[in-house]
Design goal:
Blueprint: H1 7-34, H2 45-93, H3 138-141, H4 151-166, H5 168-171, H6 173-184, H7 192-253, H8 264-273
Organism: Nocardia seriolae
Protein name: ESX-1 secretion-associated protein EspA/EspE-like domain-containing protein
Length: about 270
């Protein structure tokens, strides 16, 4: 009979249990960070298309983050239970009458790492912060679709995804899981290979989640940049239109004189009267 040191399993389980708690904290922080980011994309057709893709990926990432907490927590229990089984086998095989009490069975950690569920706010909606002009309905009249996404909300969402993807628990999850695997790797016991396979799958999921949340951060930043860029271009174009309209009004109200033929005060007077 091969005697297995149960402490290796307990050490691995402790690493996983601590990781599960840290992942739960990160997941809860993500929920808090994304609160209030609904309707951030705007209400234009392109905004709705972007929001549909974002909502799908964001919901998937949030669900995966919750599953990662539960899976890590559950595997920590299974590893600890394997250690307990070896400790109990060693205890039962010991013929010393003064061997003391039997080892304690690990408690089910079902509530050790709790997760706050995220009620996903749809990214599409509006109006957000569009572009206003001094001439009512000018933009509608000349057919310019103004993006009304909320750049402040997009930044908030990007920051939340960044914080999650780069926190120690998530960024180092694969290293932590690998360290737990190293504790029991090489132990001659039939359950070890199955446990290592599950931990390897868990590690892959953690890596995929880090990538997915980093991509979501980039998506929000990119849309924010595009909105800002588009608004600047539209603002400049509309400004030219307004100048042309003002020049026409000025010419009509000042007897056909151009702005260049008036001094500054005359020009202001004509603008106000128009």
């Amino acid at each position: 009979m091969v005697t297995v040191n149960p402490q290796a399993f307990y050490d691995a389980a402790k690493k996983l249990s601590d990781l599960a708690k840290d992942l739960a904290t990160a997941r809860t922080d993500l929920t808090t960070g994304l609160a209030g980011t609904g309707s951030m994309a705007g209400s234009t057709d392109s905004a709705k298309q972007w929001a549909t893709g974002y909502d799908k990926r964001a919901s998937s990432a949030a669900d995966t983050a919750s599953r990662l907490v539960r899976s890590t927590n559950h595997l920590s229990y299974l590893v600890a239970l394997a250690g307990y089984n070896h400790a109990l086998a060693n205890y039962n095989a010991d013929t010393n009458p003064n061997k003391g009490n039997a080892p304690d069975k690990p408690s089910d950690p079902g509530t050790a790492a709790t997760v706050v569920n995220w009620v996903h706010p749809p990214a599409a909606g509006g109006p957000g912060h569009g572009l206003e002009t001094s001439i009512p309905n000018l933009l509608e009249s000349i057919g310019i679709p103004v993006p009304d996404g909320n750049t402040d909300k997009l930044k908030t969402a990007a920051d939340a995804w960044h914080k999650y993807a780069n926190c120690d628990a998530v960024a180092n999850a694969q290293l932590t899981i690998g360290s737990a695997m190293a504790k029991i790797n090489g132990i001659d016991s039939p359950e070890v290979d199955a446990i290592l396979d599950q931990l390897d799958t868990l590690s892959s999921s953690a890596g995929d989640l880090e990538t997915a949340t980093s991509n979501l951060e980039a998506d929000c930043h990119n849309l924010k940049y595009k909105l800002t860029e588009m608004r600047t271009a539209i603002h400049d174009a509309v400004r030219e239109v307004i100048i042309m309209i003002d020049e026409t009004r000025l010419s009509q109200s000042c007897g056909g004189l151009s702005p260049g033929e008036l001094d500054f005060h005359d020009f202001l007077g004509c603008r106000w009267s128009g």
